[in-house]
Design a protein that fits this description.
Number of helices: 11
Order of helices and strands: HHHHHHEEEEHHEEHHEEEEEEEEHE
Strand order of the largest sheet: 10-9-14-15
Distance between the termini: 62 Å
Shape: globular
Amino acid sequence: MRAALVCALLGLSCGTEKVIHRGDVAECGGCHTQQYEQWSRSRHASSGESEVFRALLPQVEARWGKVARARCETCHQPGHAGDQTIGCASCHLAVGNREDANGALVVNVEAAVAGPGENTRAPHEVTPRRFFQAPNLCGTCHEVRGPGLLDEPTLSEFFAAPLEAGQTCTSCHDPHEAPGQVLLTKALALEVVDGAVVLTNVGAGHAVPTGMTAIRDVWVDVEVDGVLHERVIELGAELDASVFTESSFIRPRGLMRGASRRWLVPPGAGEVRASLHFSPVRAETARALGLEVEHRLLASERQAQ
């Protein structure tokens, strides 16, 4: 009843009569209320409005020029179907790409809406487009090749990972939802075993962290007999400046699927406590940009030696 009322107000039909769709999130959200609410809380919904993106954009342009700025905007503010965020059209009306990188999506607002299968009851045409199911769709924006230090090889990492046949991005990720720390806790396993603290990528089909690793921060602190050893394992990238636009290099330290990193517990130690931490923006970067520093405890492990 609610969906029918919304459709009537929008001048649409939620019955069997096919209509021409606009493809923007306001229209799609009229019938797809649950997906719209999930999307509204996701990073896709705030892709062009986040304070980190807005703070970094002029610095990227100052360092590498207007081409670099435009590359950021192509993915974060694509403008598909009039949406200035990554909305429904960016995936469901994508018919292909010009390359598997750099936001080179081809979106056709007059195309049938791509979905997981045929739906004859939808008020618009629905098709199981192959590109919609492929990792190349996500990878078009989640693979950036320059200019300068703007390299994000997530799609390349995915293709290099030892995955089971048929696995794709949506095997783990729901694109309507923010990935958040829930997936990080599933992707990373923290153990205290055999005299070592061990961190392993057990679940992600790419490196952890991935993407813009120069601003991500994942690390392990260890307390041994009450003495704190900070950052004994670090997964955030190594660089020589607070903000990557001022750095001369970026060295990713992420863990590929199945890979581990360990810290040896001192001989004769008693109680060992290990804790895994995550911040979406490095503390140094946040301070340099005048932003709040976020820090989350993801997991902890304890063992008496």
